[in-house]
Amino acid sequence: MPPDSSSAAVAAPDISTSPPSLITLFVAFAKMSLAGFGGVLVWARRGIVDQHKWMTADEFNETFALCHFLPGPNIVNLTFVFGSRLRGLPGAVAAFTGLLGPPALIMVVMGALYSRYGDIDALRRILSGVACAAIGLMLAVVFRMMTPLLKRRDVTALLVMAVVFIAIGITRLPLPLVLIVAIPISIAITYWMRRQAA
Q1: Are 168 and 175 in contact (CB under 8 A)?
Q2: Which of 25, 13, 21 is nearest to 98 (CA)?
C-alpha cells in the first residue's frame, strides 16, 4: 500500500540538494535565535521556508502543529524534530545548540546588567516598546502561517481554527479540554475529506 502523500510531506523536508552540514544548521539556527526578539517562530519560519527552502509552507505548518502538542517549548521541539530529520541526532543537537546557545550567553549578561540597572525609568520604557514589537511579530507570523489555508480556500481548516481561537482566547476554556475535543474532530474531518477526494 503506497504511503499517504500528506504524511510523506511531514516525514521529510523538501530539499532539492544534499542536506545542510551540521555547521550550516548551527549557524542558521543561531541567526534565527539572535534575530528572534519576542520569539523565534517568526524567524524560524522565514529561515526554514523562505530563505533556505528546507521545507514548504505546508510542511512547516504541519511540523509545527505536531510540535505544538508535544511537551516543552514549541520552537525547541520544532528545532529538534527539524534537525533530526535533516541530519539525524547530530543535526538535532546542532540545531538545538544554535537555537539556545547564543541567546543563553546573552541572557546571562543581560540578567546581570538588569539586576544592576533595572530601576532606570528609560530602560522600562524601552522594554515596553520591545513588547509591542514582539506582539506585532507574532501577529505577522500567524498571518503568514495562515496563507496556505487562505490560498487553498480551506474553509473547514479556517473554521476549526476560528472555533479553537474563540474557545481558548475569548471564552477562556481550559486548553487541555479544548485540545481533547478539537484534535479528534480535526483528524476525523481531515480523514473524511481525503476519503472523499480519493
Answers
A1: yes
A2: 25
Domain end residue (candidates: 108, 123, 147)? 147
- The candidate with the shortest Cα–Cα distance to 5, out of 56, 44, 49, is 56
Provide the whole-model pTM.
0.57
Average pLDDT, the chain: 81
pLDDT of 28 reads 93
**181 dihedral zone (left: phi>0; alpha: psi -120 to 50; beta):** alpha
Output the nine-digit C-alpha cell for 15: 530539499
Residue with cell 541567546: 103
pLDDT at 11: 42
CB 80 within 8 A of CB 95: yes
Instruction: Tell whether 127 and 192 lie within a shared domain.
Output: no
| Cell 524567524, residue located | 43
Count of structural domains within the chain:
2
Residue ranges making up the domain that contains 60: 5-147
Determine the Cα–Cα distance for residues 93 and 22; give it in Å rounded to an integer.
Answer: 9
Q: How far is the C-alpha of 105 from the C-alpha of 100, rounded, in Å?
A: 9
